[in-house]
Automatic annotation (TrEMBL):
Lineage, opening ranks: Bacteria, Pseudomonadati, Pseudomonadota, Alphaproteobacteria, Rhodobacterales
Organism for this UniProt entry: Ruixingdingia sedimenti
Compositionally biased intervals (Basic and acidic residues): 1-13
Top EC group: ligase
Protein name as annotated: Histidine--tRNA ligase
Any one Gene Ontology molecular-function term assigned to this protein's record: histidine-tRNA ligase activity
Gene3D superfamilies in UniProt: Anticodon-binding domain (3.40.50.800), Bira Bifunctional Protein, Domain 2 (3.30.930.10)
Segments forming domain Aminoacyl-transfer RNA synthetases class-II family profile: 30-398
Length: 511
């Protein structure tokens, strides 16, 4: 019988004295660590977005990172690979548990579980990490952050209009100005009405033509990348790309494809003109007409609040891939240009999306519960802010109180306490104080703006020395006599004035 492999970190049985294997100091594949400034930037951005959501009456909600696979619903365990799509495991009682893959599925569970306690409609926002058991790639991780806002229990599309307005407000509050973004709105009912006219949706048998509709949806979603001819090919027999790979098409006739193509080019200069064109395209479809009326209502509600097409516009090109969307869908796109990995200019693209999903809570209750919401890709939005230069500067560290005399640690801690009481970040150097140069190197690595110095001589005279590390570094790079005379990088102040002097130094006003 072959010997079992020992767990990592333990010596195999029968090999007494063998050195245990050291664990590898590396993150698991597809995961990453976040340090100081990255964490602070994310917290600040999410705090600003939360402020917008709270202004609209939304309340925060935190759900467990773990849900039952049954509650998640989208992925089900199987014998060969029980954790398909999610990080899942089986409990001793045979229940399957998994890390949440988004923040919407847990909300559906909460809405059903606490339906007798929650107000209706229930407005909530949620922020936190989610996990996907997918193949990682450049910029694609298995753990990432999402920021959601949803309304459960409101059947009116006024809730969808509110979500769109909130999304625009969130983007502007974090530093994406008007002109650099647009929120695009469509309605899956309109698209289904066009499908009905095109002959790939049978209202009496919704499952019929499901495969063809899937291909049509994916084709429309790629129109910006493939152009009209590429989409037309996917609607027909199929398309062969530049590499020679062939993608099977939906098999629509030329007449059917023409109806769908008319939908992709239905956007006009005004919402009213777009609505009029969509009404022509859905023809006699009752579902399509309902969707057009909903878009018309959304446009009117947004216009009344001052959200014109420069911020939020009706765009039939928005599809949104998830199958549970049942009505309005929306997507926030950043319109400014960046350079890609090849040095080519391109638009930044989408940072948020969502829509109405009236059937998700029904899985738990058996009754239809209207719901709509949006999810912001936190990492994408942070990357956009860095591209715009809104964040990414070196974060200022704490003031460092250096240690000149080991037996006077109480004095140094008292200085740090005074600074903190004045609202100034401060810390006492806790390494080996023998080499003062190492203390200044530490302060530099911490990006400290000021170092506080007090030896026995300064203590006897009741003063401290403040070293302006930021100005000192600047002067060292390009010193001018005038700048040095105007504001020296090191000054002596009374101990009693420590906090006020540091505050003035941090404000850049000198002493």
């Amino acid at each position: 019988m072959a010997q079992e492999k020992a767990p990592e970190g333990k010596a195999p049985e029968g090999k007494a004295g063998a050195k245990p294997r050291r664990p590898r100091a590396e993150t698991p594949k597809g995961f990453r660590d976040y340090f100081g400034a990255e964490v602070t930037e994310r917290q600040d951005m999410l705090s600003a977005i939360a402020g917008v959501y709270r202004l609209h009456g939304f309340e925060p909600l935190e759900t467990s990172a773990v849900e039952t696979v049954e509650a998640l619903g989208k992925f089900l365990p199987d014998v060969d690979r029980p954790n398909e799509g999610v990080f899942a495991w089986q409990e001793e009682d045979k229940d399957w548990l998994a890390l949440r893959y988004d923040l919407t599925a847990p909300l559906a569970r909460v809405a059903a579980q606490y339906r007798n306690d929650l107000p209706s409609p229930y407005r909530r926002y949620a922020m936190g990490p989610v996990w996907r058991n997918e193949k990682p790639g450049p910029g694609r991780f298995r753990q990432f952050y999402q920021c959601d806002a949803d309304t459960v229990g409101a059947p009116s599309v006024a809730a969808d209009a509110e979500i769109c307005a909130m999304l625009a407000g969130a983007l502007e509050c974090v530093g994406i100005p008007r002109g650099d973004y647009v929120v695009k709105v469509n309605n899956r009912k309109v698209l289904n009405g066009v499908m009905e006219v095109a002959g790939v949706l049978d209202p009496a048998d919704p499952d019929r033509f499901a495969a063809e509709r899937g291909i049509v949806l994916r084709a429309i979603d790629k129109i910006d990348r493939l152009g009209p001819e590429g989409v037309r090919a996917l609607l027909g027999a199929g398309r062969r790309d530049d590499s020679g790979d062939f993608t099977k098409g939906a098999g629509l006739s030329a007449e059917q494809a023409e109806v769908v193509m008319g939908f992709t080019t239905a956007r006009r200069d005004t919402g009213a003109a777009t609505v009029a064109r969509l009404r022509e395209l859905v023809g006699t479809s009752a579902l399509g007409a309902e969707g057009v009326a909903e878009l018309e209502t959304i446009a009117a509600l947004l216009d009344a609040q001052g959200y014109g097409p420069d911020r939020i516009l009706l765009d039939p090109g928005v599809v949104r891939g998830l199958g549970y969307y049942t009505g309005p869908v929306f997507e926030a796109e950043l319109t400014f240009e960046i350079l890609d990995d090849k040095g080519q200019k391109r638009q930044f693209g989408s940072v948020a999306g969502g829509g109405r999903y009236d059937d998700l809570v029904k899985r738990f209750t058996g009754q239809a519960v209207p719901a709509t919401g949006v999810s912001i890709g936190v990492d994408r939005l942070l990357a956009a802010l860095r591209a715009k230069g809104r964040i990414g500067a070196v974060a200022e560290g704490p003031v460092v109180v250096t240690v000149m005399d080991r037996d006077r640690m109480a004095d140094y801690f008292a200085m740090a306490a005074d600074l903190r009481a004045a609202g100034i970040r401060a810390e006492v150097y806790l390494g080996n104080p023998k080499n003062f140069g190492n203390q200044l190197k530490y302060a530099d690595k911490r990006a400290a703006p000021v170092a506080v110095i007090q030896g026995s001589d300064e203590a006897a005279r009741g003063v401290v020395v403040l070293k302006d590390l930021i100005l000192g570094a600047r002067i060292a790079q390009s010193a001018t006599l005038e700048e040095w005379k105007d504001r020296p990088a090191q000054v002596e102040v009374p101990r009693a004035d420590l906090a006020s002097a540091v505050r003035a130094m941090l404000a850049g006003g000198g002493l």
